[in-house]
């Protein structure tokens, strides 16, 4: 093993030196050309974002840079070492945090760190100062004796980062480190990485969050195995000058207005922002069509600065359009009660630990209701009680007027549930999973056949029918999970982080379906760590330390977070403000 000491990188002397040189890189997997003639340079002291849709080749590229895959043709050097001929050196001078970091969940935090040090050939008895520094850096010092399986998502990612930094690498490779991480923990990770680049380290951060990419020094945009863009994010954003607009004061019409706008020839992309709709025009298009839409709906059309996300979607050809084929197949939902979901003083204890503490709210028919909070706040526990999957310790929960304690079977038949962790059966094929779901909900043979065919067509699953779900690309896994949850056309749908880890275009596809379902009267409860997705919700409830700390519309929550330093807060700003204020209040009370 290569064990030479690696001197720290000097930001002053090496900031303009290439840490990684990629030259005409190609990689095939059978008939799939995963990477095509890639060439780029990545520099010390800079944070480089790696973005692109699912299947673009991001993870394949990172694994080649980490020396875990061999390219078919072309060359890559990392810190002047060839990743093939000097492979042992690569494993010492680089740190790699894979997309699903392989922590040993039955080991404690400190035991995982010791194991990683030993795997790198380090004498752990001589590394007390290093462990102390990494624990302080990641704020994990109070949790050294906690099993990693008991950590929150954000804490697991911080432990993964600590292990990747174990040998003080010159180059740090992070494959979507913030997936499934709440905005507060994501902010912590961001500050940590900025500190590392400030010390001269080269960092590649693969991300599905385009607001993160916008804050990088440079961005590599991969699409179908090729670089579609290489440069500062602002350079790409400039291409959208005078093409980004917002329809303001649309209010309750916003879902219908967005769907209509996305089907216009002149519109490339669009999203909901609270009571407004944000739109991006195609190259060469005038705002005439969207101005007519504004006039007809009583909205005000306002030019707004372009974002990197606007440019990203536009470069890839635009979003998926505004019509949901899924919603088009559904009849309007008829309920005898206006309250689709409700809970009163809902509480769940696991021994001495309180996961949900006296939570009460009501969700109306056809409403999209967001349940947000930091990792470990109690969102998934609350979800599972409302779905009848967990029995509350105390309190009440109702779905379409049915008490989940007294009629759990009947109530469950009225809802669909898409779990946070992929919950399909990997021993069954895609076709068999669809058939199993249809059977569980008691669909008759003719209806079952029609519904399965409908889902295969809508979610583009035909070529995957004989494949096990674990072999599917992430976007198709999530499509299959949603198809199974909707097989029986429930009036209430629970979505627990449905778009975690998928690319922005697939997220837009999901929200086209969600918006369409809501317009048909389906009630939707959703958890998410993407704060731009919270903007789609009619109302948002925020949990912190098992308690409900806020419940209001996205726009109202943003208004409450406004300050002299942040006069126009984003939903993420509002989320962090609420969590920090609540944490400060708890400290004062203690």
Automatic annotation (TrEMBL):
* InterPro entries for the chain: AAA+_ATPase (IPR003593), ABC_transporter-like_ATP-bd (IPR003439), ABC_transporter-like_CS (IPR017871), P-loop_NTPase (IPR027417)
Statement: the UniProt record of this protein carries the keyword Iron: no
Keywords attached to this entry: ATP-binding, Cell membrane, Membrane, Nucleotide-binding
From what superkingdom does this record's organism come? Bacteria
Q: Name one GO molecular function term.
A: ATP binding
Which residue ranges does the record assign to the ABC transporter domain?
20-249, 341-570
Cross-referenced PANTHER family: ABC TRANSPORTER G FAMILY MEMBER 20 ISOFORM X1, ATP-BINDING CASSETTE, SUB-FAMILY H, MEMBER 1
Q: What is this protein called?
A: ABC-2 type transport system ATP-binding protein
């Amino acid at each position: 093993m290569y064990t030479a000491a690696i001197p720290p990188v000097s930001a002053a002397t090496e900031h303009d030196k290439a840490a990684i040189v990629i030259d005409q890189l190609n990689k095939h997997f059978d008939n799939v050309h995963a990477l095509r003639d890639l060439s780029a340079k990545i520099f010390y002291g800079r944070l480089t974002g790696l973005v692109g849709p699912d299947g673009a080749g991001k993870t394949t590229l990172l694994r080649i840079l980490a020396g875990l895959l061999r390219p078919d043709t072309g060359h890559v050097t990392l810190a002047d070492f060839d990743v093939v001929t000097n492979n042992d050196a690569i494993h010492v001078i680089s740190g790699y945090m894979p997309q699903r970091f392989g922590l040993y969940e039955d080991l404690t935090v400190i035991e995982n760190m010791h194991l990683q040090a030993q795997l790198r050939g380090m004498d752990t008895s001589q590394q007390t100062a290093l462990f102390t520094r990494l624990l302080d850096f990641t704020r994990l010092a109070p949790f050294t004796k906690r099993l990693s399986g008991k950590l929150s998502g954000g804490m697991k990612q911080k432990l993964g980062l600590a292990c990747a930094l174990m040998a003080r690498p010159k180059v740090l490779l992070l494959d979507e480190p913030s997936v499934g991480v709440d905005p507060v923990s994501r902010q912590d990770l961001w500050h940590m990485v900025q500190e590392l680049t400030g010390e001269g380290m080269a960092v590649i951060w693969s991300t599905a969050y385009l607001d993160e990419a916008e804050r990088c020094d440079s961005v590599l945009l991969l699409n179908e195995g090729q670089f579609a863009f290489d440069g500062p994010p602002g350079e790409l954003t400039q291409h959208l000058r005078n093409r980004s607009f917002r329809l303001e004061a649309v209010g309750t019409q916003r879902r219908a207005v967005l769907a209509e706008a996305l089907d216009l020839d002149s519109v490339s992309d669009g999203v909901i922002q609270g009571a407004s709709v944000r739109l991006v025009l195609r190259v060469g298009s005038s705002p005439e069509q969207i101005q007519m839409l504004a006039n007809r709906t009583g909205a005000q059309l306002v030019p707004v600065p372009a974002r990197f996300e606007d440019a990203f979607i536009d470069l890839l050809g635009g979003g998926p359009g505004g019509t949901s084929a899924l919603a088009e197949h559904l009849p309007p939902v008829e309920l005898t009660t206006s309250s689709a979901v409700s809970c009163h003083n809902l509480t769940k204890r696991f021994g001495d630990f309180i996961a949900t503490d006296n939570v009460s709210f009501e969700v109306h028919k056809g409403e999209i209701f967001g349940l947000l909070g930091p990792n470990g706040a109690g969102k998934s526990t609350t979800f599972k009680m409302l779905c009848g999957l967990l029995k509350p310790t105390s309190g009440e929960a109702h779905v379409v007027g049915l008490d989940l304690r007294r009629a759990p079977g009947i109530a469950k038949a009225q809802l669909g549930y898409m779990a946070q962790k992929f919950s399909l059966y990997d021993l069954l094929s895609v076709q068999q999973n669809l058939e199993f779901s249809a059977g569980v909900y008691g669909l008759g043979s003719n209806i079952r056949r029609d519904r399965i065919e409908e889902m295969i067509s809508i979610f583009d699953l035909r070529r995957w029918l004989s494949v096990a779900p674990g072999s599917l690309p992430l976007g198709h896994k999530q499509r299959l999970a949603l198809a199974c949850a909707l097989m029986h056309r429930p009036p209430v749908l629970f979505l627990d982080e449905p778009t975690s880890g998928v690319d922005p275009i697939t997220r837009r596809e999901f929200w086209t379906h969600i918006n369409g379902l809501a317009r048909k009267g389906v009630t939707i409860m959703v958890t998410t760590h993407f704060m731009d997705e919270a903007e789609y919700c009619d109302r948002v409830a925020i949990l912190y330390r098992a308690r409900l700390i806020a419940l209001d519309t996205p726009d109202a929550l943003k208004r409450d977070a406004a300050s002299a330093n942040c006069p126009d807060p984003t939903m993420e700003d509002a989320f962090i403000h609420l969590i920090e204020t609540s944490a400060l209040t708890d400290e004062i009370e203690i």
